[in-house]
Amino acid sequence: MPPFVSGSRVTIHDVARHAGVSHQTVSRVINEHLSVAPSTRQKVLEAIETLKYQPNQAARSLVTQRSGTLGIVSFGLTYYGPAQMVVNIERAARLRGYGVALTSIPELSEGEIERGLLELRKQSVDGFLLVAPLRGVNTERIRSLCGHTPFVLLDAAETGGTPGVTIDQMSGGRLAAQHLLDLGHEHIALLSGPQRWHDARLRLEGWRAALTHAGYTPVSVLEGDWTAASGFGLTQELLASRIPFTALVAGNDQMALGALWALHERGVAVPSDVSVLGFDDIPESRFFHPPLTTVRQDFAALGALSLAALLEAVESPREAQALPTRVLLPELVVRASTTSPRRT
Amino acid sequence: MPPFVSGSRVTIHDVARHAGVSHQTVSRVINEHLSVAPSTRQKVLEAIETLKYQPNQAARSLVTQRSGTLGIVSFGLTYYGPAQMVVNIERAARLRGYGVALTSIPELSEGEIERGLLELRKQSVDGFLLVAPLRGVNTERIRSLCGHTPFVLLDAAETGGTPGVTIDQMSGGRLAAQHLLDLGHEHIALLSGPQRWHDARLRLEGWRAALTHAGYTPVSVLEGDWTAASGFGLTQELLASRIPFTALVAGNDQMALGALWALHERGVAVPSDVSVLGFDDIPESRFFHPPLTTVRQDFAALGALSLAALLEAVESPREAQALPTRVLLPELVVRASTTSPRRT
DNA sequence: ACAGGTGGATCGAAGTAGGCT
DNA sequence: AAGCCTACTTCGATCCACCTG
After folding, report:
1. Is residue B60 situated within a structural domain?
2. Is A303 found in the same domain as A160?
3. Which end of chain A has the least Cβ crowding within 10 Å, N or C?
4. pLDDT value for A157
5. Is A150 a member of any domain?
6. Residue A72 — left, alpha, or beta (φ > 0 → left; ψ -120 to 50 → alpha)?
7. Quick one: which of B91, B92, B137, B85 has its CA closest to B110?
């Protein structure tokens, strides 16, 4: 029973000695160079196995100028969307042989994003993924902070030529509003997410565009902060204002949940008195009272696609600039929270 | 407008030349060694600033044998608890000057945990945090995989002498059951989380212990998988079985949500016909129909405490073995979903 | 004796050049 | 000529021994 030290104190030379070859050959095997006979290759691999050799990443990246890790700057990991993206990015990265360094920023502001980037730069990553849908981010600023390190923006829409992947939030918004219009609604109130968020802004624009196109204007537009609590509070305000409405569109499913409860407390029936619509399709929304009609977004695909885009840039820097902005389309999921307005 | 290369091609020697000192002095400043006059120190700092010098982490850790990053192996980042922990660990780590490498495992099994550890070892982290509440993890196996690298288990209860931080799930379970007993309930059904999870097991044990102590047994015990869908399905089963019950305890808030909807569909009123109790206190549970009585856990504190424990081990390896297992207590939050059973 | 410079060696791997079988 | 070796350099920072004003 050997003491089995995993502190990685075993070097390439130990492997070489054990296999009876030179360290050069070991290096060739590890990096899959040509000109290694299958038999010696086998010997080396066995030595690596029995010695539990792990190449020293620091030494390696010192000479290769690559760390083999990608950096994610993410906001709101406790929200459904960002968490989904991060998980899927990480999984895809491992499959491609990369590790992931994460920093989550406590507040969605340009300053925090920059801080996040600087932190990750210290860890010397090979590429950045920014899951930070702040409206009006200064792309130039980010580009200069990233320097020669490629980066990808997720969920940012003003991708001024920067490689990026997006879900078309605006068409998602349109989808939602159109659904209500098709049902015959004319008095629609909007509860948006924080307008500093790109997503929130675009969803609102989508809602508005569909309404305008049909010749209507929203009876009320209020801004929340994605939380159920804000959806609850804003709906209370809306009810107190006595503005009549037959449908309520929320910026995300959590806000819709808060709205549902506020309506319930006032004795307003959903959907017979008021239809409610969410956004995201979190797993729970199917079990809201009533089950929520909402717009589904494929965050997993978004994460995976972004990673693919980033790695293209990392591994073949030449074409980095030519990367297209990819766009995913959301999908309407109709459940019991929406119906035609009551005839008056 | 200088081309501003951030590829970190500027070395310690460039800084030295710019500041008119030796590379030795620059190193002394960076590592806060003594014997540097304030004036020269200032000069060096200025040179670092204007050259935008960033020490090369690879070179640094090659000699210091430290990477300055900690590894997190986490399961279920899309769940509220784990996400909270990861975010808080990361934040605390940055404050202490550490970066974070993350790997989330797709499935909660011992094999996956090991894979996660191996992946992180490649990134040569200084310490591990395992957010993986698998029941019966082989601590010895993990210890050997970690080798000389210190590690901390979050949420694992069989911390056989390993440094760990836990929330006392069992007393949380007792809290919940006792609340129902105090209200006068005698026919209580239990909807547990997956029993491979430590948390789920301990909560169930807590519920049972409290009931047993009061002279009762649960009328039914069903096992779900944390999702609202499972809470829904199990509650349907329970109702179909026609076993009478006046209270339902769920393994977490999501399962409670599913249960609420299943009860509602059958015309069972909450809380007047059946009381429902959750676990976790996710932000949304306040807006369930009705607002959910649940057991709050301070995941943020758990994350921060674990990090502190780990860093103690990382920075002063001597006392690593002597680290105590810290335990946090959960708290009951009473809302509208529980009340006394109807007199029959 | 304090503030600093000089000139190394060192960490572990990758890569290069030339040479032997 | 493929397969492998020896010997040396490089990457960037740390740290040491030793010197100097």
Report:
1. no
2. yes
3. N
4. 59
5. yes
6. beta
7. B137
Instruction: Give me the DSSP letters along A1-21.
Output: ------S----HHHHHHHHTS
Q: What is the pLDDT of residues B273-325, one digit of tens each?
A: 999 999 999 999 999 999 999 999 999 999 999 999 899 888 876 655 556 67
Q: For B107-121, what is each residue's pLDDT tens digit?
A: 888 899 999 999 999
pLDDT in the model for residue B234: 98
Range of the domain at B18: 12-55
Separation CA B31–CA B8 (nearest Å) = 19
A230 and A264 belong to one structural domain: yes
Question: What is the mean predicted confidence (pLDDT) over A14-27?
Answer: 91
Say whether both B89 and B179 belong to one domain: no
Asked whether the CA dihedral B25, B30, B33, B35 is positive or negative, the reply is: positive
SS3 for A152? strand
Task: Kindly state the tokens that stand for A256.
Answer: 């819709």
Q: How close does chain B come to A184, measured CA to CA in Å?
A: 27
A162 and A177 share one domain: no
Percent residues over pLDDT 70 in chain A: 92
Cα→Cα distances A66→A60, A123, A319, Å: 8, 11, 18
| Global confidence as pTM | 0.91
- CATH number of the domain bearing residue A34: 1.10.260.40
Residue to mutate among A30, A51, A66, A287, with most B CBs inside 10 A, is A287
From A62, A147, A228, residue closest to B62, measured CB to CB: A62
Same structural domain, B282 and B196: yes
With CA atoms as reference, the chain B residue closest to A66 would be B58
Mean pLDDT of chain B: 90
Which chain A positions have a beta carbon within 8 Å of B260's beta carbon? Answer: 287, 289
Q: Hey, how many other C-beta atoms are within 10 angstroms of the C-beta on B344?
A: 5
Q: What's the domain count of chain A?
A: 3
The residue behind tokens 């977490």 is: B252
- Long-range Cβ contact pairs of A8-11 (< 8 A, separation 24 or more): A8/A54, A8/A56, A8/B121, A8/B124, A8/B147, A10/A51, A10/A52, A10/A53, A10/A54, A11/A53, A11/A56
What does the pLDDT read at residue A33?
Answer: 83
Residues of A in contact with B128 (CB under 8 A): none
Residues A88 and A237 placed together within one structural domain of the fold: no
Cβ atoms within 10 Å of B35's Cβ, excluding its own: 6
Backbone angles phi, psi at A66, to 5 degrees: -135, 140
Q: Is the CB of residue B115 less than 8 Å from the CB of residue B60?
A: no
Indicate whether B152 belongs to any domain.
yes
Residue B125 tokens read as 């982290």
User: CATH no. for residue B289?
Assistant: 3.40.50.2300
Collect all residues of chain B within an 8 Å Cβ-Cβ radius of residue A78: 80, 83-84, 87
Both A209 and A233 in a single domain?
A: yes
- Each residue's pLDDT tens digit, A266-325: 999 999 999 999 999 999 999 999 999 999 999 999 999 999 989 988 887 665 555 667
* Strand C–CB A11 distance below 7 A: yes
A277-288 confidence digits (pLDDT tens): 999 999 999 999
pLDDT at A3 over 50: no
Q: Which nucleotide is nearest to B44 (CA to C1')?
A: C4
Are B35 and B136 contained in the same domain? Answer: no
Residue A7 lies in a domain: no
CB A178 within 8 A of CB A295: no
| E strand or H helix that includes residue B250 | strand B247-250
Cross-chain CB nearest to A99 (options B5, B104, B123): B123
Q: Which chain B residues touch A288 with a CB distance below 8 Å?
A: 257, 261
Query: For testing the chain A interface, which of B78, B108, B265 should be mutated: the one with the most A CBs within 10 Å?
Result: B78
Examine the pLDDT at A2 and tell me if it is beyond 90: no
